[in-house]
């Protein structure tokens, strides 16, 4: 035997808030496991209508995505200061500057998390940007 494998049971709790768009598939807005909160990717949907906003404006879409993420984090007892990892998915990497500017506004009072940014072929509902993140609480 090369070692002992230790597996601890970890409580998992689904996080939900009406202040962010409801899931459009079989997933949770976020899941808290131990002291980590795993936020599902958010696209720029209005939480009240479920409709895509700012269809041609990547900065406006990014602001809505970050607002949605803030609501999910709050429901989990966290905020952007708890974020440790984010992934940004862009339809067009040329939008990186505009997205980065808006994204940065949400971390003005806290160090930003580690991050990756990826250009993708398509996003749900024709969105221009999607962001997911992990927070430690």
What would your notes on this structure say?
By secondary structure, the chain is α+β, with helices and mostly antiparallel strands. It has one domain (12-136): 2-Layer Sandwich (60s Ribosomal Protein L30, Chain: A). It has helices at 58-75, 96-105, and strands at 12-15, 30-33, 36-42, 83-90, 114-119, 129-136. The protein has a six-stranded mixed sheet, covered by helices on one side. α1 (58-75) runs parallel beside α2 (96-105). The longest helix is centred in the middle third of the chain and has 18 residues, at 58-75. The chain starts with 11 loop residues before the first strand and ends with a strand. The relative contact order is 0.22.
Features:
137 residues; alpha+beta; 60s Ribosomal Protein L30, Chain: A; 6-stranded mixed β-sheet; 2 helices; globular
Topology:
Blueprint: E1 12-15, E2 30-33, E3 36-42, H1 58-75, E4 83-90, H2 96-105, E5 114-119, E6 129-136
Parallel strand pairs: 4-5
Antiparallel strand pairs: 1-2, 2-3, 3-6, 4-6
Helix pairs in contact: 1-2
Q: What is the helix/strand order?
A: EEEHEHEE
Strand order of the largest sheet: 1-2-3-6-4-5
Distance between the termini: 36 Å
Within CATH, the superfamily carries the name RutC-like
Radius of gyration: 16 Å
Beta-strand portion reads 25-35%
The shape is: globular
* Estimated structural class: alpha+beta
Could you say what the CATH architecture is?
Answer: 2-Layer Sandwich
Biggest sheet architecture: 6 strands, mixed
Assembly annotation? single chain
* Tally of contiguous helical segments: 2
Tell me the helix content: 10-25%
Low-confidence runs:
none
